[in-house]
Amino acid sequence: MVDADAELLAALKDGRSTPQATLEALYWRHAERVWRYARFFSGDGEVASEIVQESFLRVARNLPAFEGRSKFSTWLYTVVRSAAVDITARRRRHASMQSAAEPGEPDPMSSIPANEQAPDQIAAGEETKAAVRAAVGRLPENEREAVVLCELQELSLREAGEVLGWSETRVKVTLFRGRRRLRTLLKHYVEAGSAT
């Protein structure tokens, strides 16, 4: 199986592509998934968009230094996580300096309609997404990161470990705990849904 990211980076390295074209292609391949990760990390669509922007600025600055010892996507999530930590910390400091926090923007991804579904199916799907989003948001930070990277972003235990700076065993144990906690948090919701 050909790694499209590796092909793009090889084309850049041997002069068949420009840095701008390579970065653009990488952006369009990964931006939506990066936004979803940032959204789960921050809990806010506006902050997620800021994280995506900052992440790709960092990628643009550091792309020449990327040596390819790991997959590009693994390196990218490491950059995104770093940007997310920096931005959320900065926003927390800023919010603590202000007496009243401003409300966040609505989630831009929630406005994407699902094709060929009846309105009641769309509503049920949105309700399910909201319940899962809320439950993931209630997880302790380490469990949330493991669940989002492994379950939602579909990174392997090894890749998630590289992003988080953890061993595969730590990722596996933390993921197990996060899944167990999610089952508990969503138990009432699942039971209520099966009763209808």
What is the name of the CATH superfamily of the largest domain?
RNA polymerase sigma factor, region 2, helix turn helix motif
Mean pLDDT: 83
> According to CATH, what is the topology of the largest domain?
Rna Polymerase Sigma Factor, Chain: A
**Biggest pleated-sheet summary:** none
Compressed to H and E, one letter per element, the order equals: HHHHHHHH
Number of helices: 8
Distance between the termini: 44 Å
Tell me the total number of β-strands.
Answer: 0
Architecture overview:
- The chain has 196 residues and is an all-alpha fold.
- The protein folds into 2 domains: 1-102, Rna Polymerase Sigma Factor, Chain: A (Orthogonal Bundle); 119-196, Orthogonal Bundle (Arc Repressor Mutant, subunit A).
- The protein has helices spanning 4-13, 19-42, 45-62, 72-97, 119-138, 141-152, 157-164, 168-195.
- Helix 5 (119-138) packs across helix 8 (168-195) and helix 6 (141-152) packs across helix 8 (168-195).
- The radius of gyration is 19 Å and the shape is globular.
In short:
This protein is mainly alpha-helical and 196 residues long. It has 2 domains: 1-102, RNA polymerase sigma factor, region 2, helix turn helix motif (Rna Polymerase Sigma Factor, Chain: A), CATH 1.10.1740.10; 119-196, Orthogonal Bundle (Arc Repressor Mutant, subunit A), CATH 1.10.10.
Key descriptive features of the protein:
Arc Repressor Mutant, subunit A; Rna Polymerase Sigma Factor, Chain: A; single chain; mainly alpha; 0% strand; 196 residues
